[in-house]
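Box S1 | Example of a co-folding query
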Amino acid sequence: MADVAVIGGGAAGAAAFGELLARFDGGTVHWIVGQHAPGRGVAYATSDDQHLLNVRAAAMGVFQEHAEDFLQHASRQLGQVKGTDFLPRRLFGDFIQAQVGARIDTARRAGRSFRIHPESAREIVSRGKDGYAVRVGADRWLEVGHVVLAVGALAQRPLRTVSTTALASGAYELDPWRLDRHPQAPRRVVVIGTGLTAVDTLLSAAAKWPHAELIAVSRHGLLPFNHAALPLAPYARQEALNQALLASDCPAAMFRLVRRALDDAGDTDWRSIIDGMRPINATLWQRLTHARRRQFLRHARWVWEAARHRMAPATGEAIYQLHEEGRLQVLAARVLDVDGSAPLQVTLRERATQLVSALEADLVIQATGLDTAVAYGAHDLLSQLLRDGLATADPLQLGVLAQPDGQLTHADGRVQHGLYAIGSLLRGNLWECTAMPEIRAAAHRLAVHLSQASSVARESASELP
Ligand SMILES: Cc1cc2nc3c(=O)[nH]c(=O)nc-3n(C[C@H](O)[C@H](O)[C@H](O)COP(=O)(O)OP(=O)(O)OC[C@H]3O[C@@H](n4cnc5c(N)ncnc54)[C@H](O)[C@@H]3O)c2cc1C
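Box S1 (continued) | Returned holo structure for flavin-adenine dinucleotide
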């Protein structure tokens, strides 16, 4: 028998655990969830109902074979709900917990073996052909055949431009989901970042401090684009475009192809063309050389992210209102320095003019998005895996190096058999792997693979004389 340990109590861990519960009978399935409520992770732990999903309800399942169940769950909770709606993320967190709960009940009735550990995984030691030993909490060891790392992105590191004085002042917030740590109303809040996390932060700050002036700053000052209110008609020539993109291995040429398609698309909405590329995005990424990936990250990522990861229409409308009311300014500038304390001094270089200016802020919130630079992060388990050679950092700091099936690459270049990752840690491998549609497909594939491998191992063992 070879047990499996899933490490990480977010949505990816929940998907992997639930998929394994449904089909893995080769041993015990351990779910090591850390200290937070299991299943919600960073994205679905919010209690602020202004924080909406950025994927339509119909596409937000947690398990691959029941991808539409969220819609039924939401309808039971809220009454009439349409598959095209963008619903509160909190509701999806409730749904994940209910779905996993149902799988646990079924597994119990079927006599499947599983355990949930409300602690963190601290260390993983290779036992060669016998799998791994995983240290849970202070000193409990689990002996397992396979490990699935579903630990999400890293906790934010302060930007290099933030002084220790500013960090110690209590007025620089590294966790955009912890505005509750600031009971006193600030007059001016600066949010660093203009992606989806920054948008949610701005909405929460606006509601919590109705008189605060809000400033969001990023190098290009580009907020995410809005989703269309209703699903869009597909682009008639998407298949031809995707074929042409797959024949290219250069981001600049790919952008030219997309640009041409946009120009020729007539009445087709540009968002439809971007969405139509989703099935091939991972393949396009995998075809790029290291230098070309770097080129994409440096020159095109900012606009790609804004176009690809869009806001729910209601979120876009709320941000637009703040702007119209004069409460929100969005700046295209580089943050050169954050220093001082109460108020902080934020020094900026404006993109258009290159002029340097300083502004005061009672609170600065860092909302710069996913950090997967494992070589620099302070994640104890990942640091240990890197130190011991069981994992290797992606050279562009997009997580860890891995095989196409998610097994990690050892420091010596070999496959680290039986040690898998899913979700954000695989961005270097897949680029597009952080949203639920990709996560649930990966969790399903992995559970099927591990179940089949375990059946084969048992059959071979039973044939031995
Ligand atoms: C603000 C936000 C909004 C999003 N909105 C959407 C959306 O609308 N639709 C969509 O499809 N996707 C959305 N996403 C993408 C999102 O990343 C995924 O949907 C999903 O939540 C990722 O889950 P995860 O489990 O990989 O990561 P996380 O949510 O980061 O969960 C990882 C968990 O692992 C735990 N952990 C870490 N180390 C250990 C350890 N050593 N031992 C035990 N536990 C550990 C962490 O504490 C954490 O709880 C959003 C992401 C964010 C950040």
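The pocket of flavin-adenine dinucleotide is lined by residues 7-13, 32-34, 36, 41-43, 53-55, 120-121, 150-153, 196-197, 200, 381, 423-424, 434-436, 439 (CB under 6 Å). The radius of gyration is 23 Å.
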